[in-house]
């Protein structure tokens, strides 16, 4: 493979995460209808709204450097989202399915946290201060979404133990 610049890698990573976010906006509505817990449903609805804004934010970062913000299909996210639909197929509606979906979607959040962490590190080195600021916002949003899911899973795991005992 040809030697490429860090800037090119940076653009590539942004295009990958743009695809990841776009895939999430298509998958979350299915997750929302599949879960039973109201608080969990609300958390996913809130994160769906946020994710749609994130797509715009990543596009605007890309547009600072490129004429067109194009996405590059993210196979990693495709796999993680397949596991989400697998959880819906494998478990009947109820607490255990909710727990399975929390487990699957926290993997999605961790992917995003890792992606934005790496991209922000590159933005800092490349001197793209405005991008780094936006990437910090994105990183915090993903961390908050992950924390919220951890908090809900604590309650739901306990309910699930009760349901199957
Ligand atoms: Fe996101
Ligand atoms: Fe997220």
Structure description:
The chain has one domain (about 5-165): Ferritin (Up-down Bundle). Helix content is about 85%, strand content about 0%. The protein has five helices and no strands. It has helices at about 5-35, 40-65, 75-90, 95-125, 130-165. The longest helix has about 35 residues, at about 130-165. The site of one fe (ii) ion (FE2) has 6 residues, from α1 and α2. One fe (ii) ion binds near residues 24, 51, 54 and 142.
Identify the notable features of this structure and list them briefly.
165 residues; mainly alpha; Ferritin; 84% helix; 0% strand; elongated; binds fe (ii) ion
Question: What is the fold's blueprint, element by element?
Answer:
Elements: H1 6-34, H2 38-63, H3 75-90, H4 95-126, H5 129-164
Helix pairs in contact: 1-2, 1-3, 1-4, 2-5, 3-4, 4-5
Q: Percent of residues in beta strands?
A: under 5%
Tell me about the biggest sheet?
Answer: none
Briefly note the structural class of the backbone: mainly alpha
Average pLDDT, all residues? 95
Number of helices: 5
Q: How many E strands?
A: 0
At the fold tier of CATH, the topology name is Ferritin
Question: Per CATH, which architecture?
Answer: Up-down Bundle
| Bound ligands | fe (ii) ion
**CATH H-level superfamily title:** Ferritin, core subunit, four-helix bundle
Please trace the helix and strand order, writing H or E for each element. HHHHH
